[in-house]
């Protein structure tokens, strides 16, 4: 276990605002100009940006760094977050169906974090799982253009599900900020 004095020095690629992840002109999330029109388009854009933020937090790290539980006693790691969000995407599809639920992606509870080990095959599989599950959930939700429509056994509004997705990614991007800074000192934005 590291002592506080062994924490990496903070760093950033930004030169305009040194407390930012990168310069605003280099940020792929900054689309310049007015935001999207409409509730669904706005929610989808926020979700897209948080998904991209998570990927940015993981960029440039090797499997050991991605699997490192850098904020003890938490079992979280960046790789665990990628796996967790793939699992959560799958679970959200269960909320919009009246049928049998899809099985857990990684099996037992907490396997998304517990089995996030420093192996390139595990990393590659986690990213493939996340992309596949995101696409499947996006496709399932695209069938419901009315954000007020209620679906699934719990009669949840599509709006509520979309807001919850944004919240889940936003919360975990905050975790990713701390995890990444403890790994190599790179600051969040």
UniProtKB/TrEMBL annotation:
Name by which UniProt lists this protein: DUF664 domain-containing protein
Using the UniProt annotation, give all residue ranges assigned to the region (Disordered).
Answer: 1-40
Origin species, per record, is Streptomyces pactum
Record's Pfam families? MST (PF04978)
The region annotated as signal peptide is none
């Amino acid at each position: 276990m590291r002592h506080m004095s062994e924490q990496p020095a903070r760093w950033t690629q930004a030169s305009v605002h040194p407390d930012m992840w990168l310069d605003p002109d280099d940020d792929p999330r900054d689309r310049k100009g007015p935001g999207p029109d409409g509730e669904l388009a706005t929610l989808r854009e926020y979700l897209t940006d948080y998904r991209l933020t998570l990927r940015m937090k993981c960029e440039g790290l090797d499997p050991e760094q991605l699997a490192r539980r850098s904020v003890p006693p938490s079992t979280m790691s960046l790789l665990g977050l990628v796996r967790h969000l793939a699992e959560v995407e799958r679970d959200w599809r269960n909320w919009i169906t009246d049928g049998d639920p899809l099985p857990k992606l990684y099996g037992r509870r907490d396997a998304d974090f517990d089995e996030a080990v420093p192996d390139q095959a595990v990393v590659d599989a986690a990213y493939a799982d996340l992309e596949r599950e995101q696409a499947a959930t996006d496709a399932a939700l695209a069938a419901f253009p009315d954000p007020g429509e209620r679906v699934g056994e719990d009669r949840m509004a599509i709006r509520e599900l979309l807001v919850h997705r944004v919240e889940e990614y936003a919360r975990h991007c905050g975790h990713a900020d701390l995890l990444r800074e403890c790994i190599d000192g790179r600051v969040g934005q």
